[in-house]
Write a structure and sequence with these properties.
mainly beta, five-stranded mixed beta barrel, single chain, 9% helix, 1 helix, three-stranded antiparallel beta sheet
């Protein structure tokens, strides 16, 4: 008589969605660093998990938090989607609080008439916290 074993070792996993073509299932890739004992260098080790996504709210590129299920839902599905940590495409600049894409802001910050008094005070406070001065003190940089 065999004793039922636990389905997975890790209870919570963070990974990136790489596929959503199956119904109510997301394919998630988890990357972790493993130390090679001989070379004393870290290498990426990847593993792919299938997670139950009942509302089909994931898209490819999302960073998600997976929760281990107490028992398997199917042959391959051992986790369920607990939370979408970062939605792809919705990147907010931590200093200005404005949406951006790559290195560009989606809203033009150079137009002074679009900035309100609250925006300018918020930006100046953030610059003071970072000890960045708005004047060009080093001309030969």
């Amino acid at each position: 008589m065999s004793v039922p074993r636990g389905a997975v070792h890790a209870k919570w996993i963070v990974g990136k969605v790489i596929g959503t073509k199956m119904q109510k299932t997301a394919k998630v890739r988890v990357t972790r660093l493993v130390l090679d004992p001989y070379l004393l260098k870290f290498f990426n080790k990847r593993k792919t998990y299938f997670a139950h996504d009942p509302l089909q709210q994931c898209v490819v590129g999302d960073i998600v938090l997976l929760k281990a299920l107490p028992e398997r839902r199917s042959k391959h599905v051992k986790h369920e989607l607990a939370e979408i940590v970062f939605k792809v495409g919705n990147v907010i600049d931590p200093i200005t609080g404005k949406p951006c894409a790559g290195t560009r802001f989606l809203e033009n910050l150079s137009d002074s008439e679009n900035l309100t008094e609250a925006d300018t005070t918020y930006l100046s406070e953030k610059l003071q916290e970072l000890k960045v001065c708005s004047t060009n003190s080093g001309e030969n940089i």
